[in-house]
């Protein structure tokens, strides 16, 4: 992933998290999954904010993905 795309994706994730859990301010890191079948990019942001938000991390992760669905279309090549 190009550095500019990475910055854009981090910004989109921050915006999605701010909409879902306004009180959260996690450090968002992107990395390649160890297993290629798990996708091209991974982040543990849902795990970081789930406990303070008192929400299920898997459900929160899906909500972040859903929030990103339209926003991230510009990054998909």
Name the poorly predicted regions: none
The termini sit apart by 11 Å
Q: CATH homologous superfamily name? A: Arginyl tRNA synthetase N-terminal domain
Element-by-element helix/strand order: HHH
Explain this structure to me?
This protein is mostly helical and 77 residues long. The chain has a single domain, classed as Arginyl tRNA synthetase N-terminal domain (Gyrase A, domain 2). It has helices spanning 3-20, 45-53, 57-71. The chain starts with a helix and ends in a 6-residue tail after the last helix.
For this entry, give a set of tags:
Gyrase A, domain 2, single chain, mainly alpha, 77 residues
Compile the SSE list and pairings.
Layout: H1 3-20, H2 45-53, H3 57-71
Gist of the model:
By secondary structure, the chain is mainly alpha-helical.
């Amino acid at each position: 992933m190009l550095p500019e795309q990475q910055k854009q994706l981090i910004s989109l994730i921050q915006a999605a998290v701010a909409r879902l859990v306004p009180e959260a301010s996690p450090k968002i890191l992107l990395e390649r999954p160890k297993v290629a079948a798990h996708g091209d990019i991974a982040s543990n942001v849902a795990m970081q904010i789930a406990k303070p938000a008192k929400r299920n991390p898997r459900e929160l992760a899906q909500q972040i993905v859903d929030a990103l669905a339209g926003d991230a279309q510009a990054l998909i090549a």
